[in-house]
């Protein structure tokens, strides 16, 4: 059995509790991992002046693989998302978001098995923004007016939406290769090219050029994003692997998570050419910090993705099987799972006790 060194970022809020649960479960499989602890989060602002120290980035660069808990992101002010910064610094151009049915979650749908591949570095999340009233915003408004590109109200804040050939080509190619490697049959490119002809239009053009390379091995199609959302809700069986620009991928992946029970059971991975950072989709839930209440399922499923990446497939499948058993039995589950199934939290267990139940079934 190989020995792996993995950067472990506990995060803040409920992050330390769920990453502790994850670590215990992974270690119980017998996989030999040296956990190198690194910090990120709002709690570092006062001591080091940044939520993402360079030492944490260097740890990931050295180890190539990291797994993290959630990190609080202020809304509307304060520092930018640590997750977005990690993706940009390490060029983690793929956000992998599987959505699949598990027993005992109270989900509205059954038999869902979808893969969302979201471009992670461009689009409206590129961070190219101009504040309302700033000289830069004024200059851009004037530039657009002078060039006949359209009138923008003078009191506007402006975000740019860059989509490149390079970014589109590599994420669509990654989605197609993932589909082939995992026995999938169809890739759907999702866009709004009917309206955004020069950004989403470019994404769609490049997507079909890439898709043509896989003719005879994969079915390749496209959907306009609003029609895709309706189709997912009405006929999810028509979809398999979806590849999307950044913003649509964020939204559609949450729709798919909602179909299988919510963000509490939604794993995620951010993958680039050199590095991979695994993280659950949900937030840091600071009001539950330190209360041993949080559902660690998403973090455990994220560890399953990490173990597959490390080629520890047998351990990954054991953890997934144990989670299925615990959820199906429904006796040793956290308050959110208990409530959705029974209407009451009576008999629920805490974060650490849920991890105990998973470990017992490995």
Mean pLDDT, nearest integer?
Answer: 95
Give, in order, the helices and strands.
EHEHHEHEEEHEHEHEHEHEEHHHH
| Separation, N- and C-terminal Cα atoms | 18 Å
Structural class: alpha/beta
Helix share bin = 40-55%
User: Quick one: overall form?
Assistant: globular
Task: Name the poorly predicted regions.
Answer: none
What would you report as the Rg, rounded to the nearest angstrom? Answer: 21 Å
- Number of beta-strand segments: 12
Cross-sheet strand order for the largest sheet: 2-1-3-12-11-4-5-10-8-9
- What about the largest sheet? 10 strands, mixed
The number of helical segments is 13
Proportion of residues in β-strands: 15-25%
Can you describe this structure?
The chain is α/β, with parallel strands linked by helices and 362 residues long. The protein contains 13 helices and twelve strands. The mean pLDDT is 95.
Q: Which features does this protein show?
A:
alpha/beta, 10-stranded mixed sheet, two-stranded antiparallel ribbon
Would you summarize the structure shown here?
The protein has 13 helices and twelve strands. The protein has helices spanning 15-28, 45-48, 54-63, 82-89, 135-146, 165-181, 200-212, 225-234, 246-259, 297-309, 313-329, 335-342, 351-360; strands spanning 3-9, 32-37, 65-68, 94-100, 113-119, 129-130, 158-159, 186-191, 219-224, 241-244, 269-271, 276-278.
